[in-house]
Amino acid sequence: MIQVNKIQMVDLVSQYQDIKQEVDEAILSVIENANFINGPEVNSFKSDLESYLNVNHVQPCANGTDALQIALMALGLKPGDEVITPSFTYIATTEVMALLGLKPVFVEVNPDTFCIDASKIEAVITSKTKAIVPVHLYGQAAPMNEIMAIAKKHNLFVVEDNAQAIGCDYILSNGETVKTGTIGTIGCTSFFPSKNLGCYGDGGALFTNDSELAVKIKMIANHGQSKKYYHDVVGCNSRLDTIQAAVLKIKLKKLNEYNAARNKVASYYDNFFVQFPQIITPVRATDSNHVFHQYTLKVEGLDRDELNNFLEEKGVPSMIYYPVPAHRQKMFESFGSASTHLPITDWLTERVISLPIHTEMKQEHLDVICNAVAEFIKSKE
Ligand SMILES: *Cc1c(COP(=O)(O)O)cnc(C)c1O
Fold first, then answer.
1. Best mutation site among 68, 96, 161 for ligand 1, i.e. most ligand atoms within 8 A of its Cβ?
2. CA triplet 93, 326, 209: central angle to 5 degrees?
3. What is the pLDDT of residues 165-197, one digit of tens each?
4. DSSP state of 157
């Protein structure tokens, strides 16, 4: 039984109802033709996404984590190389660095936008630094103009973690508007079901405008193969299933509409919470729009965990993204990163809380959520 009235962080069931017929037919067609691996839908989705992003090359792969790993492999990074990245992110961003023997060098984020603070990058650049991996966290672009200028000056690669920001627009210094993920050397994304463009399982992709890199990326994602059974480099096996490509092809047509629906929810929250000085609503960057993968508040003078528990009791889901920043994860103990001084990251970790946001949000749900937060604040006055 589907509980239609329960408030959820993400409501993929209602979203499916709207595209059910088209999706069902597309999935059935893949099954009837037994085109499970590398079926025509994969290439067709790849070119649709290239057009949407206005990028020369898209390489579909198995998930967003693989995309990041393949990107760092394609750039030829070697064990011991240093990669500059925020600690305030999902673990996948930095985990793949450790997996490849690279050293993540954690940099502070801007407390307003939650993205890497570009003014703090140059201080940590060494002779071993090879790349910067900014994350467009919660659906808003990192300061790419500043990051690209630093990368150019120090001859560094830039890999954009675009898993939370597909469809986001960024204004370049020359005034041109481009999609995030197409600005750096390589862009990476995830099609995890709850992402802004999500499939019905795992999926991911890499983007690049560099044709030579595109060849390498394609090779690495396919066992380092240049032609069948001839393996030139060490690669991996990372494919997007045909069924997932078929779903994504349909959902890509709706991505702008989906991102607009998320923005409508965000504006409603913004307007409601303006009356409470204890609630700091998301700050909009001037060089980026926001696709609101998450709607994340900062609370001040309130116990964030108490609010989180209060909402749970009221049947309102909320999430902490993320309860432990990367530099404090046990995984990185041997890197000694816990001693990295990141007071803003630590401060944010204790103050952020994300409210439900998705494409099918109903006004009655927004009312329940907002009233629950208001009730908590008033109970503390
Ligand atoms: C989801 C996500 C990933 C990883 O994507 P998967 O498809 O789950 O492997 C990487 N980085 C960020 C910022 C993410 O949100």
1. 161
2. 20
3. 999 999 999 999 999 999 999 999 999 999 999
4. E
pLDDT digits (tens, 9 = 90+) for 197-220: 999 999 999 999 999 999 999 999
CA of 278 to the centre of ligand 1 (A): 30
Cα(121)–Cα(137) distance, integer angstroms: 17
pLDDT band at 2 (very low <50, low <70, confident <90, very high): very low
Instruction: Identify the CA nearest to 165 among candidates 324, 288, 32, 302.
Output: 288
Cα distance between residue 71 and residue 304, in whole Å? 36
Closest atom of ligand 1 to CA, residue 190: 7
pLDDT band per the 50, 70, 90 thresholds, residue 5: low
Residue 1: the pLDDT is 41
Six token digits for residue 288: 């980026």
Q: Is ligand 1 within 6 A of the CB of residue 160?
A: no
Q: Identify the CA nearest to 377 among candidates 300, 292, 289.
A: 300
For 88-126, what is each residue's pLDDT tens digit? 999 999 999 999 999 999 999 999 999 999 999 999 999
User: Residue 308: CB within 6 Å of ligand 1?
Assistant: no
Q: How far is 15 from 364, CA to CA, in rounded Å?
A: 17
Name which residue sits closest to atom 2 of ligand 1, judged by CA: 163
Distance between Cα 371 and ligand 1 center (Å): 32
Using only the alpha carbons of the chain, give its radius of gyration: 21
pLDDT tens digit sequence for 260-273: 999 999 999 999 99
pTM above 0.85, yes or no: yes
Q: Which domains does the chain have, with CATH numbers?
A: 12-108+115-252 (3.40.640.10), 255-379 (3.90.1150.10)
**375 vs 356: CA distance, rounded Å:** 17
d(CA 257, CA 359): 9
Are 81 and 130 a contacting pair, CB within 8 Å?
A: yes
163 alpha carbon – ligand 1 mean position (Å) = 5
Size (the chain), residues: 381
CA-nearest of 253, 269, 260, 319 to 10 is: 319
Can you spell out the DSSP letters for 159-195?
EEE-TT-TT-EEE-TTS-EEETTSSSSEEEEE--TTS
